[in-house]
Amino acid sequence: MRKKAENSLLITLKELARSKAELEQIVFIASRDFKSLCRLFQQSGHLGNGYKGKFLDKDAWEIIGTLLTALVGMPKTYQ
Fold first, then answer.
1. How far apart are CA 79 and CA 75, in angstroms?
2. pLDDT category, 78, cuts 50, 70, 90?
């Protein structure tokens, strides 16, 4: 009975280690993608500044405004 419990525990520990590794990979990918998105927002802010006083259609200004609004609300650590 004890041997069966030990085997069951070993299987559970292996599954837990595998799940932990998968979770770490997911977090790594999500973090990398989030940082890339933050850089994109930051670059869009520079884009808006570069076109101040120049003609862009209403849709372009709305997109730039939306991106800048999102950037302003982001924590400084992600900018």
1. 7
2. very low
pLDDT digits (tens, 9 = 90+) for 36-75: 877 776 776 666 566 666 677 788 778 777 777 776 666 5
Query: pTM of the entire structure?
Result: 0.50
- At 32, which helix (H) or strand (E)? helix 2-50
Going from N- to C-terminal start, the domains of the chain cover 2-78
CA distances from 71 to 6, 42, 49, 75 (A): 53, 7, 14, 9
Task: Name the one residue in this structure whose structure tokens are 């930051």.
Answer: 42
Yes or no: say if 38 and 74 are a contact pair by the CB < 8 Å rule.
Answer: yes
Residue in 51, 47, 54, 52 with CA at minimum distance from that of residue 71: 47
**Rounded to whole angstroms, how far apart are CA atoms 61 and 49?**
11
Rounded Cα–Cα distance for residues 38 and 61 (Å)? 19
